[in-house]
Amino acid sequence: MEALRNLRRRSVRTSLTVLGIAVGILAFTVMGGMAEKINMIIRGSEAYFAHRIAVRSAGGSVRLNFLQSDDIATVRQVSGVQAVETHIMLPMDETAGFELAPRSLVGIDLENFQRAQALAGQEAQLRLWQGNWWRPGDREVAVLGSAVARRMKLKVGDPLLARGARFRVVGIIEETLSLPDGWAFIPQEDARALVLEVSSTVPGSDVPAFATNAYALVNPNEGDAVTDEIATRLRRGFLLYSPQQLSKAAAQASTLLNTAILGSGAIAVIVGALSIINTMFIAVAERTREIGIKKAIGASRWDVTREFLFESTLMAIAGGLVGVGLGTGVIYAINWYTRDQGTPVFIMTPRLAIGGVLFAGVLGALAGVLPAMRAAALDPVEALRER
Amino acid sequence: MLLEARGVTKHYPMGVKALDGVDLSAAPGEIVGIMGRSGSGKSTLLHILGCLDRPTAGSVWLDGVEVTATAEAALPAVRLRKVGFVFQAHNLVSTLTALENVALPLRYLRPRPADAMAKARAALAAVGLSDRMHHVPAQLSGGQQQRVAIARALVNGPALVLADEPTGALDSQTARELLALLRRLTAERGQTFVIVTHDPMVGAACDRVITMVDGQVHP
């Protein structure tokens, strides 16, 4: 193929140009891998909350308000609420909040949790990878998210030590690449005991039941209306998030992050594309007589344009493939070094790989436009005078 | 007449007159030589006859079509279908083999002929280079390169072949062989050749020679 031979004819120059694009696409791929990870967390959260209205204390992390039995009953009575799932969430240890997949203990009522799972969408369901859920009435047992199991090197049957308590691991959940990977589910009674042990804000140990978070299971398209209704009925001091609000916030966060992360990667590729423009202008200057010959024997402007565009695109796609390959290597290397975090920092996806190569190809074609137009516009008589 | 030029004039800025009212005609199958000193306007005339350049005044008719009145965008198609070019030297695309160079015009034809490579092979065979098909120009002698260029000029079956000093870079023996080849091909195919040359031997091989002086045909 003529284009390949033309590129091979100046192999050093071609290699350097391809390398320029490859470095740009490498940056784009690694940045994109980070965006994909964040997107996955956002998508996972969106799926999780698609059927749920979240209710939690307005006191932030201080938890001024716990949800009492009466509050749960109030939420349950609102028309449109199919069930109420309650959690008692607390950080797994003093530093757990500063991790890539923050580890939390999540106290659940198993029956209540499983009913909610059945009502939630397929995407939000958590599936067991190993072991089983505990049996009703079991205490001091845990089902771990994948990141917790990996980070703490735990398997079914091992003991989980958290907040001074000891739990027997009975199951491990399939990796979701979102928040539940950092959760360790324990019986709600155990979680309640842990809170009471350390908290001075809980009204008293005689309180029969309380939760830190409640989720009203609803039909997704009724979320806003039911949220308003819960807000009017529930006593003050709680924050409510409807699925629509969360979805909107997730979309905004996703757009902002993607723009910032992929934008910075794209700048690197654009710098690489400048080297293609330079290389192609040099090629046009060197091959002026050849262009003159081709035009003399009947090549149209488009024929000439197309040949140079093809070469620039070919170089860019080669750079894209090398860059995606290197980027994938870097992503796997970083994930390998940070595997102790329990969850990958970057995620390489097929769309990122294809997107990287396509992006390079499109930029290559665009970078070739000006040199190709200059070649096509050459006066054949002038071009034939070149030696 | 296959080719007819009437009052062809070419002026450049600063008042330079490259051609001044040139009349020329060539019949099908005729070999016309254009001789003259450097700067006499031979190459400019050849470029205008081949639709590579436009005259300031006058008209050129090729195969019944007034090409000087044809839109700029349509001229590549005219060159592709009706004109073949052979230049003095550096005639070939250096990255392509002899066969690919000959097939080059066919690449630009739409629709591309299904038997493009077969046609190119036949054209190379006609100039006696079947055994050099896969050689790149750097692996061919000057004479062989010119024969490849002739094969390329003929592969589309153009009515008119224009040659600008085709023997200029060849030794006399090779030049003689090339002329014999041109004569044979003209006789076989009935194509019209217009050859610009300094070389009296080339002139002698033509059916008719016109001489140019200062942009005009010398009587």
Secondary-structure blueprint of this entry?
The complex is a heterodimer of chains A (387) and B (219).
Chain A: H1 2-9, H2 11-49, E1 52-57, E2 67-68, H3 69-77, E3 83-91, E4 104-108, H4 110-119, E5 128-131, E6 141-144, H5 146-151, E7 159-162, E8 165-173, E9 183-187, H6 188-198, E10 210-211, E11 213-217, H7 223-233, E12 238-241, H8 243-286, H9 288-296, H10 301-337, H11 350-377, H12 380-385
Parallel strand pairs in A: 4-9, 6-8
Antiparallel strand pairs in A: 1-11, 1-12, 2-10, 3-4, 3-11, 5-8, 6-9, 7-8
Chain B: E1 3-12, E2 16-26, E3 31-36, H1 42-49, E4 57-62, E5 65-66, H2 75-82, E6 83-86, H3 98-107, H4 116-126, H5 142-154, E7 160-164, H6 172-189, E8 192-197, H7 200-205, E9 208-213, E10 216-218
Parallel strand pairs in B: 3-8, 3-9, 6-7, 7-8
Antiparallel strand pairs in B: 1-2, 1-4, 4-5, 9-10
Helix pairs in contact in B: 3-4, 3-5, 4-5, 5-6
Descriptive keywords:
heterodimer, A: 387 residues, alpha+beta, two-stranded antiparallel ribbon, 12 helices, 56% helix, 15% strand, elongated, B: alpha/beta, six-stranded mixed beta sheet, four-stranded antiparallel beta sheet, 10 strands, globular
Give a description of the structure.
The complex is a heterodimer of chains A (387) and B (219). Chain A has 387 residues and is an alpha+beta fold. Chain A has two domains: 2-42 and 250-384, no CATH class; 52-217, no CATH class. Chain A has twelve helices and twelve strands. In chain A, the strands form two sheets. In chain A, strands 1, 3, 4, 5, 6, 7, 8, 9, 11 and 12 form a ten-stranded mixed sheet that branches. In chain A, strands 2-10 form a two-stranded antiparallel sheet. In chain A, strand 7 and strand 8 form a beta hairpin. The two termini of chain A are 24 Å apart. Chain B is of the alpha/beta class. Chain B is 34% helix and 27% strand. Chain B has helices at 42-49, 75-82, 98-107, 116-126, 142-154, 172-189, 200-205; strands at residues 3-12, 16-26, 31-36, 57-62, 65-66, 83-86, 160-164, 192-197, 208-213, 216-218. In chain B, strands 6-7-8-3-9-10 form a six-stranded mixed sheet. In chain B, strand 7, helix 6 and strand 8 (192-197) form a beta-alpha-beta unit. The longest helix of chain B is centred in the C-terminal third of the chain and has 18 residues, at 172-189. The two termini of chain B are 20 Å apart. The mean pLDDT of chain B is 89. Chain A binds chain B through residues 2, 5-6, 9, 289-290, 293-301, 303, 380-381, 384, 387, and chain B through 47, 50, 52-53, 73, 76-77, 79-81, 83-85, 87, 90-96, 100, 104-105, 107-109, 152-153, 156.
